[in-house]
Write a structure and sequence with these properties.
- This protein is mostly beta strands.
- The chain has one domain (2-96): Umud Fragment, subunit A (Ribbon), CATH 2.10.109.
- Helices cover 6% and strands 46% of the residues.
- It has one helix at residues 78-83, and strands at residues 7-11, 26-31, 40-45, 49-58, 61-65, 74-76, 86-96.
- The two termini are 24 Å apart.
- The model has no long low-confidence stretch (mean pLDDT 93).
């Protein structure tokens, strides 16, 4: 992994990404500022709130979608993306879970 770029680990909190990611699981994240639509990303909102979600960018803005269907997708207009800001800080490349 070290040859492929900078990485960091992040512990999952909450259940918006269940059933694939459960609370307490650890994801390995490659630091990068962009991801393709549908990839699982770590996204920083308001400069201090990080969330792990599927990322989609459209002409209408950015949509962050959890795996858990009980959660409503988070939608941000292009203006909100700039003002809040909403920024990708990495792409999830590995899941580590305990049984």
């Amino acid at each position: 992994m070290a040859r492929a770029g900078d990485h960091f680990a992040l512990r999952i909190r909450g259940d918006s990404m269940e059933p694939r990611f459960k609370e307490g699981d650890v994801v390995i994240v490659r630091k990068q500022e962009t991801v393709d639509n549908g990839q699982v990303a770590v996204v920083m909102v308001n400069g201090n709130d990080a969330t792990v979600k599927k990322f989609y960018k459209t002409a209408a803005g950015v949509m962050l979608v959890g795996n858990n269907p009980t959660f409503t997708p988070l939608n941000y207009t292009p203006e909100q993306v700039e003002q809040l800001p909403v920024r990708v800080i990495g792409r999830v490349v590995e899941l580590r879970a305990k049984f």
